[in-house]
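Same chain as my last thread, 209 residues:
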Amino acid sequence: MSLAKDLNLPIKHAKTVLPSTCVEVHGIMIDTKSMIAKLPQNKVQALRSLLNMYRKQKKVTLRELQSLLGHLNFACRVIKPGRCFLRRLYDKTMGINSKHHYIKLNNDCRADIQLWHEFIHDYNGCTLLTGDRFISNQTMNLFTDSAGSKGFGIVYSNEWTFGCFPLQIQQLHINILELYPIALAVVKEALQLAPHLNKCPAAIPNTNK
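reply #2:
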């Protein structure tokens, strides 16, 4: 600080932070001691209010949808998996210029909003910082895919499995159905996958964007 003063460099004291293990970076609190990224509670509360407002609506204006997407997109800085639940909402804004134009929200869009609502309702704003300490599915030779109307498939090394979804989950969101073969593969191949999963978490992508 004294050096900046000697060099006549302007300092914005409101944004000046002394050395600390917890600092705010672009609106996100980063705690390097606890290794967490924290979404400010005012952002969480705003999300809860917006999602509660829109989760049952069948029509919204372009301005309203863009406002909701802006809040959700900011939340995805901390909630990384959330982006796959924004794609269909963003698609609804394409080709529309008037801020007051009403957009019809179909069942899929409302399902995405409802999923966000259920998650945010109990979310404390904190996410563990894991960095790049993930092992890829290519390293494990594990690949999965799901189709809501057909079923799922699993390929692990030189083995393969396929099947239909149980009746009690067939109507769930495709993003949830994508998790079923992954969980089944981990259970089925537990002994073979254990050496990989004991070292670090696994990153298994799905094809649903």
